TrEMBL record:
Reactions this protein catalyses: beta-D-fructose 6-phosphate + ATP = beta-D-fructose 1,6-bisphosphate + ADP + H(+)
Sample GO molecular function, one term: diphosphate-fructose-6-phosphate 1-phosphotransferase activity
Enzyme class: transferase
Pathway, per record: Carbohydrate degradation; glycolysis; D-glyceraldehyde 3-phosphate and glycerone phosphate from D-glucose: step 3/4
Segments forming domain Phosphofructokinase: 2-298
One GO cellular component, as annotated: 6-phosphofructokinase complex
Example GO biological process: canonical glycolysis
Identification of the protein by name: ATP-dependent 6-phosphofructokinase
Marked site (Important for substrate specificity) residue numbers: 105
Chain residues that bind ATP: 10, 72-73, 103-106
């Protein structure tokens, strides 16, 4: 069997470990042949391929990013897009099945292509950890570690100058990165998309911290909404799936805090630093297991399915189930953290 592998959407630590796990198991157990599809769905639409073998994946588990490249191309758009054209490309290359590694947008496209008859298995990739069908996705643990280190570093300069630091992390619809890194970094408030808060409440927390002689540190998800906001802050246009490119909410909050409290405040947007660098040990192991499980799903012909983590066990679920709803932060988890605010 000849298997294609692609990585689509935003990059994240652990993608290369998935590729390595899939290729090594496929070659050793099934004597499969592999081809890498360059630059996500764009490579599948335009026919950009590279050979993958044991030599080309050697040592990949510790390497960040993706050796195959990525893009946010919508495979249904353009003159070469659509399931018929894509299947033609696959037939020309003799590719029997595709492993699509990506997040919500990638998996939704994979489900639509599978519904049209293509043989695709999904592997969940999202640092936001927002897919309901899997307990964890690789990249999340690394993103939390990076954000936590940044909070630790910013705290020292905040203490030195008596400033309030507002640290913005990723999280379009869910606040898992903010929740975990904020708790780990000892933040004095954590602001997440699931729980709007007023600027008055935020300033109350900030003043409480100042009154104790401390320098306030606030962690905020990029998708957080202040009370009264109807949609998340965005000034960067739309992505390929017509979703707003978020970022900059911290730069709205910090000046408001300073104006209302008199505390000098600074915003730091961590942005793509959370996606970069080598994956954590946890993400390397999880990503490798996902890659190996994807091979099992292919040989079981579980088309339209996705590998997922349930506790410590791997299972196969439908992509429709995986993309049917977001895994949001439960209110009780937020209230658990809120005890530590102020």
């Amino acid at each position: 069997m000849k298997i294609g592998i692609l990585t689509s959407g935003g990059d994240c630590p652990g993608l290369n470990a998935v590729i390595r796990g899939a290729v090594l198991k496929g070659v050793r157990v099934h004597d499969a042949e592999f081809v890498g599809i360059r630059n996500g769905w764009r490579g599948l639409v335009e026919g950009e391929y590279v050979k993958l073998d044991r030599h080309s994946v050697r040592g990949l588990s510790r390497q960040g990013g993706t050796i195959l490249g990525s893009s946010r191309t919508n495979p249904f758009e353009g003159e070469h897009g659509g399931p018929e054209n894509i299947q033609k490309h696959l037939d020309e290359q003799g590719i029997d099945a595709v492993i699509a590694i990506g997040g919500e947008g990638t998996l939704t496209a994979a489900r639509r292509l599978t519904d049209a008859g293509l043989h695709i298995i999904g592997v969940p990739k999202t640092i936001d950890n927002d897919l309901a069908a899997t307990d964890y996705s690789f990249g999340f643990d690394t993103a939390v570690e990076i954000a936590t280190e940044a909070i630790d570093r910013l705290r020292t300069t905040a203490d030195s100058h008596g400033r309030c630091m507002v640290v913005e992390v990723m999280g379009r619809h869910v606040g898992w990165i903010a929740l975990h890194s904020g708790m780990a970094g000892g933040a004095h408030a954590i602001l997440i998309p699931e729980q709007p808060e007023s600027i008055e409440q935020i300033c109350e927390w900030v003043e409480s911290v100042r009154d104790r002689g401390r320098a306030p540190v606030i962690v905020v998800s990029e998708g957080f909404l202040l009370s009264g906001m109807e949609e998340a802050h965005s000034h960067k246009g739309l992505d390929a799936f017509n979703r707003p490119r978020l970022g900059g909410i911290s730069e709205l909050i910090a000046p408001e805090i300073e104006a209302r409290t008199g505390i000098e405040s600074r915003a730091t947007v961590l942005g793509h630093t959370q996606r970069g660098g080598a994956p954590s040990a946890y993400d390397r192991v999880l990503a490798t297991r996902f890659g190996m499980a994807a091979i099992d799903a292919i040989y079981a012909k579980e088309w339209g399915s996705m590998v997922a983590l349930n506790g410590t066990d791997l299972e196969i679920v439908s992509i429709e189930e995986a993309t049917g709803g977001l895994k949001t932060v439960p209110r009780e988890r937020y209230e658990e953290a809120a005890v530590l605010f102020g």
